[in-house]
Amino acid sequence: MSDANDILAANAAFYAAFAAGDFAALAALWADGDGISCIHPGWPAIVGRNAVIGSWRDILSNPARPQIVCAEPHAIVDRDHGHVVCLELVDGAALAAANHFARVGGAWRMVHHQSSAIAQMISPDDNADGRSLH
Amino acid sequence: MSDANDILAANAAFYAAFAAGDFAALAALWADGDGISCIHPGWPAIVGRNAVIGSWRDILSNPARPQIVCAEPHAIVDRDHGHVVCLELVDGAALAAANHFARVGGAWRMVHHQSSAIAQMISPDDNADGRSLH
C-alpha cells in the first residue's frame, strides 16, 4: 500500500498548497511538460503546462478564493499511474474531484485534475432506480 | 502517435457503444477489477467494477437517455496510461469530459470517466482576468 499512501500524500499536498496559497508548491506538484490537463468546475478542459499552471496562478492570486477541504480521499494505483477520487468541501457545498498522478523520477506528479459540482448527495441505494444520470 | 490514435479509437468506441445502447461493448471497454471509478455529471464518485458498470447499465436501460456527441477529443499518453479530454454535446449543452485509459494486455481499457457541465463556453483570453475559478 506504499504507492497508495504516497499518492494520498501527494493529493493532500495539493490541497495544502491551495489552502496556503502557495503557488510554487502547487506548481511543483504538477508534472513538467505539456502532458497535463485540468477541468475546473464549470469550465471546458485546459491542456498544457502554461494553460494549466496559469489557471492556478490566477486562482491563487484571488484573495477572495474559497477554502477547499478534501474529504473521503480514495486512491487507485496501477503501475506508474494512479488517481484519487475525493470530495471537495467548498463553502458548504460538495464537489466531486479526481486527481490523477504519474510517477516521474520516483515522485508522484499531478497530470490531471477535474472537479465538478454535485447536484445533491445521493445514497448508494438510489443508484438502482434506473433513472438517467446523463 | 500510434498510442494516441489507439486511445482516441478506444474513446470513440466508448461513445459509439453509448450511442448504440450496447451495454456489453461498453462494459468490455472498462478495465476488469475494482480499480475503476466514475463521476457522472452532478454525482459523487463511484468506485469499483460493480458500481461503475452498474451505473452504466442503468443509464443504457433508460430509453429516454439523451444522445451524447463527443467533440474535440485530445489525447495525452504517458507510458501505459493515457487520457482523452473532450467535449460532450448533450441536448444542445456542452459538458467537459475526461476519459482515462490503461494498457491491459495490449488493449486500452477505461479506468476513469468524469463528465461535468460547462457553465459557459469561455474563450482562452478570459483565463487571464484573475477571477476565481473555484
Output the strand order for the largest sheet of chain A. Answer: 2-1-6-5-4-3
What CATH calls the topology of chain A is Nuclear Transport Factor 2, Chain: A
Strand residues, percent of chain A: 35-45%
Quaternary state of this entry equals: homodimer
Global Rg of chain A: 15 Å
How much helical structure, as a percent, in the residues of chain A? Answer: 25-40%
How far apart the termini of chain A lie comes to 34 Å
Mean pLDDT of chain A: 91
> Pair with the most extensive interface?
A-B, 60 and 60 residues
The largest sheet of chain A is: 6 strands, mixed
| SSE order of chain A | HHEEHEEEE
What spatial form of chain A do the alpha-carbon principal axes imply? Answer: globular
Any guess at the CATH architecture of chain A?
Roll
Number of strands of chain A: 6
Number of helices of chain A: 3
CATH class of chain A: Alpha Beta
Give the tally of structural domains of chain A.
Answer: 1
Give me the secondary-structure category of chain A.
alpha+beta
Uncertain regions spanning at least 5 consecutive residues of chain A: 122-134
